Amino acid sequence: MANINLKINGKNQTVDVDPKTPVLWVLRDHLGLVGTKFGCGMAQCGACTIHLQGNAVRSCMLPVSSAENKEITTIEGLSESGEHPVQKAWIEHDVAQCGYCQAGQIMTAAALLKKTPHPTDEQIESAMQGNICRCGTYLRIKAAIKTAAN
Ligand code: FES
């Protein structure tokens, strides 16, 4: 165990955990930030996507020690009250079906638009290809990203 200093959603937090603990477990089990979901646990599905220094990353295989003192943003911290353009577009397009993967989808989309405010179809497909949705909401996801980009 070790004290690890984290900057999560603009707040400094210290957790006493094994440094190899994946960030996902720290968020959910130690800090109560359960918006980030566990899907595969093998960096394959995207359900656990967060931002690390503004980049979309899989938190299920990211050791907490490698996130120390870096800016972490979770779905809870993306906006104060669901007012991020991506969240608003998600509602407008009624994207979610079961909803389980959607926090990860939104975090990946938000990271894309931050770096590429007006992405092409190919850039959207490339950025989103690692986020799996078993309900098949892909067309609505793409439409919502285009709305958020305008
Ligand atoms: Fe992390 Fe699937 S739970 S990528």
From TrEMBL:
Q: Which CDD domains does the annotation name? A: fer2
Record's Gene3D superfamilies?
A: 3.10.20.30, [2Fe-2S]-binding domain
Q: Which InterPro entries match?
A: 2Fe-2S-bd, 2Fe-2S-bd_dom_sf, 2Fe-2S_ferredoxin-like_sf, 2Fe-2S_ferredoxin-type, 2Fe2S_fd_BS, Beta-grasp_dom_sf, Diverse_Oxidoreductases
Provide the 2Fe-2S ferredoxin-type domain boundaries: 2-78
Please give one Pfam family short name: Fer2
Task: Give GO terms: molecular function aspect only.
Answer: 2 iron, 2 sulfur cluster binding; metal ion binding; oxidoreductase activity
Which keywords describe this protein according to UniProt?
A: 2Fe-2S, Iron, Iron-sulfur, Metal-binding, Oxidoreductase
* Official protein name in the record: (2Fe-2S)-binding protein
Q: Which organism is it from?
A: Dawidia cretensis
